[in-house]
Specification:
322 residues, mainly beta, 2 domains, 8-stranded antiparallel β-sheet, 29% strand
C-alpha cells in the first residue's frame, strides 16, 4: 500500500512499506539509497526518493514499494514490421529458433486466418519462402510452418484437442476469439512460445508450442516436405500480407525471438506466472535476435531490444498502456 501524499511519515511506516519489522532500526539514508531494499522505479520520479543527499522523508510521499510497472501493448488492427536483420533467423535448415509473445484476441467470431508472426525475405510478396505462426479460424488450429521453395514442413495443433492447456473448449466450434480467450492472464493475454529444432527430420518432432508455459501435445496434422535454406530478414506481426481475408484485430506485447531452442525452464521464466516481462528480466538475453517491449511507437529505423532489427512500419498502429 502506498505511503500518504502529505503530512508526517514515520520511520516505522517506511519499515512497513519495505516489508520490514515496524520497530527495526532504520536510517533515512539506507531507506533512500536502496541499502535496505532496492527502490521500486515503477513509481514516478516524483513519487520515490532520488537516492542522493540531502535525504528527506518527504521524498517518500506516495511511494509504493509493491507497485507493478506499467505494461504497454500494441493495439493492432493491421500489421507492424521490422526489417534489415543483421543476424538473420534460420540461416540454414539445421539452425534452431524460438519465439515468444503475448497476444490478446480482439477479433470477433468470423472466419479469418491470422498470421501471428511472419518471417519473410525483404521486399517480396511471394509465399514461396517463409516461416510463420498462424491461427486458422476455420480449422481452429495453430499452424507453425517452415515453407521453402513452395514446399511445406509444418505442424498443426487443434485448440479443442489441447483444451487442458488452452481452455478454449473441446468442440471444433469453440473458436479462439475476443469472447473466448481461453486460459489467459488477468488482462486477457495469452503467452505463446514456439520452438523449432532444426535437427529433427519430422515436423511433429521439430516444432513445439506452449500456451502459458504448457505444451500442446496433440497434433492435428503435419507435413514433412523437404527444407531448403532461406534469407529471412523481414519480420511482421499481426500480418495478413499473404492471407487478406478476415479480421486482424489483436493486442500484442513483449515479443521476442532467439536463434536457439528454449528449454522448459526458459519457457517457464518467460511466462513468469502470467506477468509479461522482457527477455532481459527473464535472464534470456543470450542469443536474442529480436525483442520488442515498446512503450511508444518506435521511430523508423530504430533498433529493436536486441539491436538486430530496424523498425520499418507501424502502419498507423499505436502503443497504449494497460
Amino acid at each position: 500500500m502506498a505511503l500518504q501524499s502529505s503530512g508526517q511519515i514515520k520511520m516505522s511506516e517506511l519499515n512497513t512499506e519495505f516489508g520490514l519489522a515496524e520497530d527495526r532500526q532504520l536510517s533515512l539514508k539506507d531507506a533512500s539509497d536502496g541499502t535496505v531494499a532496492t527502490i521500486n522505479t515503477a513509481n514516478a520520479s516524483t513519487d520515490r526518493p532520488d537516492g542522493t543527499a540531502p535525504h528527506a522523508i518527504s521524498e517518500f510521499y506516495s511511494y509504493n514499494h509493491a507497485l507493478s510497472p506499467t505494461q504497454y501493448y500494441w493495439d493492432l488492427s493491421n500489421d507492424i514490421k521490422w526489417d534489415t536483420a543483421t543476424d538473420k533467423p534460420l540461416q540454414s535448415t539445421t539452425e534452431d529458433f524460438s519465439a515468444s509473445l503475448w497476444i490478446r484476441p480482439q477479433w470477433t467470431a468470423t472466419d479469418l486466418n491470422l498470421i501471428i508472426f511472419d518471417l519473410t525475405p525483404s521486399g517480396t510478396t511471394s509465399t514461396a519462402n517463409r516461416l510463420f505462426l498462424q491461427y486458422d479460424y476455420g480449422l481452429n488450429r495453430l499452424i507453425a510452418r517452415y515453407r521453402s521453395a513452395s514446399v511445406n514442413f509444418d505442424r498443426q495443433w487443434a485448440l479443442h484437442s489441447n483444451n487442458s492447456a488452452t481452455g478454449t473448449g473441446t468442440s471444433s466450434a469453440n473458436y479462439w476469439t475476443s469472447s473466448n480467450r481461453g486460459n489467459a492472464n488477468s488482462d486477457g493475454f495469452v503467452n505463446l512460445t514456439l520452438t523449432y529444432d532444426g535437427s529433427q527430420s519430422t515436423a511433429a518432432a521439430a516444432f513445439k508450442i506452449y500456451w502459458n508455459g504448457s505444451e500442446l501435445t496433440s497434433t492435428a496434422a503435419s507435413n514433412n516436405g523437404s527444407r531448403s535454406n532461406m534469407t529471412l530478414d523481414e519480420l511482421t506481426f499481426c500480418g495478413n500480407d499473404h492471407n487478406t481475408g478476415g479480421s486482424r484485430i489483436a493486442d500484442y506485447m513483449y515479443m521476442h525471438m532467439w536463434d536457439k531452442l528454449l528449454t522448459s525452464g526458459n519457457i517457464s521464466s518467460i511466462y513468469n506466472s502470467g506477468t509479461p516481462i522482457s527477455a532481459s528480466d527473464a535472464g534470456l538475453s543470450t542469443d536474442l535476435i529480436f525483442g520488442d517491449t515498446s512503450e511508444s511507437v518506435p521511430s523508423v529505423n530504430a533498433a529493436d531490444d536486441s539491436g538486430n532489427y530496424d523498425f520499418a512500419s507501424a502502419n498507423s498502429q499505436s502503443v497504449v498502456s494497460l
